[in-house]
Amino acid sequence: MSSFEDTGLFLQSSDAKVLFGELYGPENITAQQNRYINLLGKLTDIAEVKEVPGREEVFLLSAPGRTELGGNHTDHNHGRVLAASVDLDSICAVIPAAGNNVTIISEGYPDPFTLSLDNLSPGKDEEGSTTALIRGIAAFFQESGYHIGGFTAVLSSNVLPGSGLSSSASIEVLIAGIFSHLFNGGEVHKLFLAEAGQFAENRYFGKPCGLMDQIACAWGGIVAIDFKDPSKPHIEEIHSPLSLEGYDLVVLDTGGDHVDLTPDYAAVPWEMKALAKTLGKETCRELSEKEVFSQIFRLRKQVGDRAILRYFHFIDENRRVGEQSRSLKEGDMERFLSLVQSSGDSSWKLLQNTYSPGTPEKQGIPLALALSKKILKGKGACRVHGGGFAGTIQAYVPKDQTREYRGSMESVFGAGSVTTLKIRNVGIISLTCS
Fold it and tell me: What is the pTM of this model?
């Protein structure tokens, strides 16, 4: 907790430069300093105009986006995933406000998000809104015995929406971080912050989601998450000697519209669980390959071939996450990239989430994967990223090929479609309070 003046001085300090270098890379220090200074200036203007009580108590918070490294469509059937936070993030400058009134001014939105926390009941009219997320996170804190209160915040995010980098989870963890640092001494555990975001998204925002995205945004670094018991996920921090030296980790936005793809997304977990239920189980995690193989004749008639293929993807992908984690810990980059490519091939051929069968003429993801393989010529790796059907792919590109890769892919998918990522070792953080 710091005053506006102290926070401004901190942002100009050598300590801030070291921190920004850690969060964003040394080449981005000045740009990030200016980004935070701009945000603090906007909050200062608001506080001076409105004379907000407690305006000397200002926090700067950052919550990263995340990238999926392995475990494509496994968490919803209690599987394993491998994910990492990235150097794109959501940030805010925030001060306490009188009573239970919340105001968030978000860059890119013409009107502020405002609400009173005196009413924490979900509302149908708020579904799909940032207001619903704020109210849901506050409700989760209060129901769990934590303190809540009003605040005024200015928020900015460079986590690309629709990119599979979890822009929504980043915002959710950031908002949960506000309640933690302003009203609970910053002592709330990272898993609780993640759970608060999931609760708000499921119960208030109206979107079913797992917990992987929020955990990766809250934790920082590379994490292997096992959802065998989803109420108590096992989270392992993967400390790797690899720094992806020699490679650039990129995501490519292939375009495409996610509208009307809900049935395609929903069919993936539904078909996997339908197969499991046919064999007397709830999820694919409870099944053995031997059990499935012995019943394929019956399963083909009852749930169809695609459900069986998706099960094969699940069981192989679940095993692959463990192998990827070991490769990272042992510093075996060649093995890791081979497993990434196997994951991509499995998603393409077995999981079948690279395009919608309802619009076979729109195959941006398969096209991007095919072009990537031609450009990389057996080097690096590429895979669908996130939910699939439209959106992004992920590629590990040798640094000496990055310029060619970017130019070739942007000539097809448009300027700015390729984004280079760096893995960030810090999750949700208050920059002005230890």
Answer: 0.92
